[in-house]
Design a protein that fits this description.
26% strand, binds coenzyme A, Aminopeptidase, 7-stranded mixed beta sheet, 7 strands, alpha+beta, 204 residues
């Protein structure tokens, strides 16, 4: 990177710190959200391999623990919740043909997402996870956009997701990213309803 650009980025980082110290929290958050766009190489998404099993299990389980607490999910009432994710489960996902992508910030894994194609034209976005310490800086949106681009490159027409029906703020977040509300269903093995949402890809 040319020294002049490097100096500019340093200044931006110091500006964030200064805003933070002066108590301008919302302005700081807004600045931090845009910082990755000035640091094009600090965040990278890469396809995961078998060597990443422990990393993915950690990212998915750690990122979903607050969801489990919020909705009262535990090993008795929801043993398959992502907050309990293990390496064996990730291995089974890969064996089923699921693809995982890992988001790294300066080589540190901070989030992941899984992509599955159950039939031609349809894709599932699964297990979107960003570690709590790295949230609200655009990482989640970046992972979703990556899946949208990946699906588009494979001529997929619809991306489908299922989220906890009562998790309405998360649904509004997906709405902002282009997902439309679909049906809500109940399953006997789940202590919550599942809200389906879909993203249509024109020309897919
Ligand atoms: C959902 C999640 C991936 C978002 O990651 P993120 O990196 O914080 O997302 P972004 O920074 O791109 O977006 C931040 C925005 O989402 C909102 N947001 C962040 N986490 C949220 C959550 N758990 N529920 C609802 N909204 C959330 C923020 O308020 C912010 O809103 P704004 O854009 O109106 O300011 C992350 O919160 C997470 O891993 N949650 C736990 C696992 C989960 O619920 N995954 C989805 C399974 S379908």
């Amino acid at each position: 990177m040319p020294p002049a650009i490097h100096l500019c980025l340093l200044h931006l980082n110091f500006l964030c710190l200064a805003l933070h110290c002066s108590g301008l929290a919302s302005l700081t958050a807004e600045f931090e959200r845009w910082l990755p766009f000035f640091h094009p190489h600090s965040m990278k998404i890469r396809e995961a391999s078998h060597a990443d099993l422990p990393t993915i299990a950690m990212l998915v389980s750690e990122s979903n623990k607050d969801v489990a607490v919020r909705f009262g999910l535990n090993a008795e009432n929801c043993p398959k919740h992502p907050s309990f994710y293990t390496e064996n489960w990730v291995q089974a996902d890969l064996a089923r043909g699921e693809t995982y992508f890992i988001l790294e910030d300066q080589s540190e894994p901070i989030g992941c997402v899984a992509y599955e194609c159950p039939r031609p034209g349809l894709a599932y976005l699964n297990r979107l996870s960003v570690l709590p310490a790295h949230r609200n800086k655009g990482a989640g949106a970046r992972l979703v956009q990556h899946i949208v681009q990946h699906a588009r490159s494979l001529s997929v027409q619809t991306i489908s997701i299922g989220v906890i029906g009562e998790h309405t703020d998360l649904q509004r977040w997906y709405n902002k990213l282009g997902f439309k509300d679909e049906e809500t269903r109940r399953f006997p093995h789940l202590p919550f309803s599942v809200k389906y949402m879909s993203h249509a890809l024109p020309g897919g």
